[in-house]
Amino acid sequence: MKIINKQNFFATGCVIFTMLVLGKLALEFLIQGLFENYQQNLVMMFLLSFLATFVLSQHYRFQKYPLLLVIAGQYMLLIAFVLFITWLSGRAEPLHEDACRDMFLSFTIPYFIGVVIYYGAVFHEIGRANRTLQELKSYRKERGEEEGQKDDSEKGTDRERE
Q1: What is the pTM of this model?
Q2: Is 153 contained in some domain?
Q3: How far apart are CA 63 and CA 126, in angstroms?
Q4: Both 104 and 140 in a single domain?
């Protein structure tokens, strides 16, 4: 059995790369005892990516709301977190005067690219599921079955229960 295949090759590569980078950062910290700016930036990018992925993955909980409202809410939650972390970092060490603007742009642009890709994939899957459902309905119609009618195997289980 193949564990890595065409469908998960890219995702597997990304996970392995991330694990290697985080391991390298941890090893550098343990050996050198320093946590430099580039290390902090990489860890922050990982945390923000992880948080953004988690927030996007929760969209199904808000299906009763308009999609644009859900996207705006997700973005507002995440950008508030980004700006809060930037503000908090400014309390620990001095930041550049444009740090908030730079963090806003550095997060917003990739996030909206990710949103377009993510929701595009969601709508693609919904379209594929709808096509499959239509094919199933047309197949059942060709066989002369009614939509509410149970097939023979379901009838047998109902009789056994009685």
Answers
A1: 0.68
A2: no
A3: 13
A4: yes
Average pLDDT over residues 101-116: 90
Amino acid at 55: V
**Alpha carbon separation from 149 to 4, 26, 86, 157 (Å, rounded):** 42, 61, 60, 14
- With tokens 């299906």, the residue in question is 63
Phi then psi dihedrals of residue 144, to 5 deg: 85, 15
162 pLDDT above the threshold of 90: no
Neighbours of 84 (CB within 10 A): 10
List Cβ neighbours of 107 (8 Å cut-off, separation of 6 or more): 48, 78, 79, 82
Are residue 72 and residue 126 in the same domain, yes or no? yes
Query: Alpha-carbon distance 49 to 111, whole Å?
Result: 9
